[in-house]
Design a protein that fits this description.
The chain is an alpha/beta fold and 225 residues long. The protein has two domains: 2-122, Rossmann fold (3-Layer(aba) Sandwich), CATH 3.40.50; 129-220, Winged helix-like DNA-binding domain superfamily/Winged helix DNA-binding domain (Arc Repressor Mutant, subunit A). Helices cover 40% and strands 24% of the residues. It has a five-stranded parallel beta sheet with strand order 2-1-3-6-7, sandwiched between helices. The mean pLDDT is 86.
């Protein structure tokens, strides 16, 4: 059964969303603040999250970063009254799968929710990813460029996984560092990420795919696949 988590402090809107998205094969769970949402996320996996940015006990973008750091495959749609370009960019850079501003049509929201759920279930986990002449199998940790197998370090594997799973999106330097170097080290040399990016580009010959977004981070350019 699908489980949708709605994190919205407006009680009326939360109730309206719950009714609009209700289905026989779907469980709707409502939270009104970050504390309740974090407690709910500890109870088990959810299929999709609707997340308001402005919550009474903090910023939803902080929770978004936590979710994508632990369970990047769970789609998150942001709900917010903030509609400036900077707000949209900030949300997408932190890993949001979609972004809808208030007020919005419930029929449009339903369509976007269904689209994200289809995306999540259409590709089995650990299915090899084919992009042009690249083949990346994160189940067996096998990486090929054409017919040539490429050996990658654990750090390079983590970096590649984050980039290709989020291809078309900008991954900030801070987010990449936090999600790659998860061994509890208090300090990571600022140059470590740049060095790892260069090594990965060179090993894969992916200079045209792994792009630097100056002052922000990196992105695997999404082309027609």
């Amino acid at each position: 059964m699908e489980q949708l988590l709605i994190i919205e402090d407006d009680i009326g809107l939360n109730l309206g969303l719950s009714k609009a998205l209700k289905a026989d094969d779907r469980q709707i769970i409502s939270c009104h603040d970050l504390k309740a949402a974090r407690e709910q996320l500890l109870c088990g996996s959810v299929s999709l999250i609707l997340l308001d940015i402005n919550l009474p006990d903090g910023n939803g973008l902080d929770l978004l970063k936590e979710i994508k750091g632990k369970t990047p495959d769970i789609p998150v749609i942001l709900l917010t009254a903030n509609d400036t370009d900077m707000d949209i960019v900030d949300g997408l850079e932190r890993g949001a799968d979609d972004y809808i501003t208030k007020p919005f049509s419930l029929s449009v929201l339903r369509a976007r929710v269904n689209t994200q759920l289809r995306k999540r279930t259409s590709i089995p986990k650990n299915t090899p990813i084919h992009i042009d002449h690249f083949c990346f199998d994160f189940g067996t940790m096998t990486f090929c460029v054409g017919d040539t197998k490429v050996e990658l370090s654990k750090t390079e594997q983590k970096l590649l996984h984050l980039l290709v799973e989020n291809r078309g999106r900008i991954m900030t330097r801070g987010d990449l560092v936090d999600r790659i170097w998860t061994d509890g080290a208090e300090y990571v040399d600022e140059n470590a990420l740049s060095v790892t990016i260069k090594r990965l580009r060179d090993k894969l010959g992916a200079q045209e795919y792994i792009k630097t977004v100056y002052g922000i981070g990196y992105s695997w350019v999404k082309k027609d696949e």
